[in-house]
Amino acid sequence: MSTILAIESSCDETGVAIVRDGNLLCNIVSTQIEVHQKYGGVMPEIASRLHAENIGVCLKEALQKSGVKLEEVDAFAVTRGPGLIGALHVGLQAAKTLAMLYQKPLIPVHHLAAHIYANEYVAPMVFPLLAVVVSGGNSELVIMRDHLNFEIIGETKDDAVGECYDKVARVLGLPYPGGIPIDRLAATAKPIYSLPNPLHNGNTYDLSYSGLKTHIINLVNMAKMKGESIDVPGMCASFQKVAIGQIIDKSVRAARAYQVKQVVLAGGVSANSYLRSQLPEELKADNIPVIRPPMWCCTDQAAMIAKLAERLYAENIFAPLTLGVDPNWPIDHFRDF
To answer: Does 329 lie in the same domain as 193?
Structure first.
């Protein structure tokens, strides 16, 4: 067994977690959301600077809370990508420095794969499975036939679903990040607007959100020009039905076509109440269980990096200290670094 210290810094959360013999000893997260809210989205340069300020504090707190000393750590794991290039660099440099100082292995972790493996805090994986990866920067449907085996069968052709939520929230005058306020308002209303549903027809498992986002922006701007008002809760309900409905429809079709034994949700949008309630309902008749990560594991944090790192450690998947970040690292090439 092993003691692994994991670092996450792909976007706007700085995280440090420590696992020992499969037990999560600590999971420290420093979020930057309040700083970025005034800009309506993550400002990459600011995010990088805040990571640099916070990484040492998070590391110190993790060691204190866990009671672990750095010399007791068997390997240092870090998010290599995907993510914001400057933010990723901060975490990687910290992990490389620790690995060099203590002469321990460096484990490169794929951020989206880690989101998938966060579900192991709930239940063991049963293969073959379908991973529904939905977040602010990524939207993918991934088939796993075994551990560390990823096949992308569908992905967004333009915007990610979480990015679309943020931009729709902004035009509706709702706070950043947009997922929570839209989800809450949608639950209070019924869909009343007719919105486009891109890639709805056909056999593709790909997703598309650019057209939906643009339609709503144009609709809202046109209403303002005419002096008309938008029913914000009604628009939220209409938008969510289409945005999440697209994910549900394609996930159900993929789960049946690939005869999976399990579906797992992953990524920030896996916290969406409509997705968490409706997808299991749609697959109930097929007897395909849907595993939902705990809410604390939906957002970015290092516990999920540590969970996947344990398996990578067992497989001796280590990286040299010359490792660089890859902001566009494909999940099906996670061994290439």
So the answer is: no
Instruction: Tell the residue number behind the tokens 């005419």, with chain if given.
Output: 226
- For residue 8, give both structure tokens: 């996450």
Residue 81 belongs to what domain range?
A: 3-115+298-333
pLDDT in tens, 96-105: 999 999 999 9
Distance CA 175, CA 180 (A): 9
- Quote the pTM value: 0.94
**Residues 6+ positions from 111 with CB-CB distance below 8 Å:** 8, 10, 79, 80, 81, 82, 83, 300, 305, 329
- Tokens 């993510």 belong to 83
Residue 118: C-alpha distances to residues 72, 111, 267, 303, 306 (Å)? 24, 11, 9, 8, 9
Sheet strands (E) in 74-230: 75-81, 106-110, 129-134, 139-144, 151-155
